[in-house]
Specification:
Distance between the termini: 41 Å
Number of strands: 12
CATH class of the largest domain: Alpha Beta
Largest sheet: 8 strands, mixed
Shape: globular
CATH topology of the largest domain: Aminopeptidase
Helix content: 25-40%
CATH superfamily of the largest domain: Leucyl/phenylalanyl-tRNA-protein transferase, C-terminal domain
Mean pLDDT: 95
Strand order of the largest sheet: 11-5-10-9-8-7-6-12
Order of helices and strands: EEHEEEHEHHEEEHEHEHEH
Length: 238
């Protein structure tokens, strides 16, 4: 495990990460936007408890969602056709990340994290998806863009399927603009039910090195309303 140099944004190669705890690569440093951008460019992300110094991770295997592999259940498809929710992109990043931090079991999204990722958002690097019922925010997600890869950080839901609709709508929006991979970092049962799977870290890094320098159209990130996919579009991308 490596101690980061406060004066440098250089990270060790992900292959040096520990096996136990899985993926722990480095400690220290800060959450300056330059360091965060350098980390995501190398397939590394911060994750630490409020009382800890920054910890930097690159787990093996890696959880990803590939194009055409999203799973939308029949029940969800039926609900999508009837939903009255509106879904937007980059309308209220600060409210989304604050909502993601509100968890009964505790959260790693501290004020330090919120400030750092809000700074990334202001630079056009971090993005949010919002799900609204009238004027009430009921779900959403946020993450970081690296070329044609989107690195999901966290999501929240205040109603059934709130975060699911955010992910589905944004997944198809990203594909329309040529997006190639969703990095979901670490698997859990909820995202696995949506088609997220684990792949070896070396395979993830191959995707990263292939797509991280391929720019995506800036129109993808404009403040806008996005839509849930039609049945025809779901079939098109399958």
């Amino acid at each position: 495990m490596f101690q980061l140099d406060d004066g440098s944004y250089i990270f060790p190669a992900p292959e040096y990460a520990l096996h136990e705890p899985n993926g722990l690569l480095a400690i220290g440093g800060d959450l300056a936007v330059g360091r965060l951008q350098s980390a995501y460019y190398e397939g590394i992300f911060p994750w630490f408890n409020p009382t800890e110094i920054p910890l930097w991770w690159s787990p093996d295997p890696r959880a990803v969602l590939l194009p055409a592999e999203i799973h939308i259940s029949r029940t969800t498809k039926k609900r999508m056709r009837k939903t009255a929710y509106a879904i937007t992109l980059n309308h209220d990043f600060e409210q989304v990340i604050a909502a993601c931090a509100q968890r009964q079991e505790g959260t790693w999204i501290t004020h330090q994290i919120i400030e750092a990722y809000t700074a990334l958002h202001q630079l056009g690097v971090a993005h949010s998806v919002e799900v609204w019922y009238n004027t009430k925010l009921i779900g959403g997600l946020y993450g970081v863009n690296v070329g044609k890869i989107f690195c999901g950080e966290s999501m929240f839901s205040r109603v059934s399927d709130g975060s699911k609709y955010a992910l589905i709508a944004f997944y198809y929006h990203f594909l329309r603009f040529g997006g190639k991979l969703f990095d979901c970092q670490i698997i859990n049962a909820y995202i696995a039910s949506l088609g997220v799977k684990e792949i070896p870290r070396v395979q993830f890094l191959n995707y990263l090195y292939q797509y991280r320098d391929q720019p995506i159209d800036k129109a993808c990130w404009l403040k806008q309303t996005i839509s849930l996919p039609s049945a025809a579009e779901i079939n098109h991308f399958e």
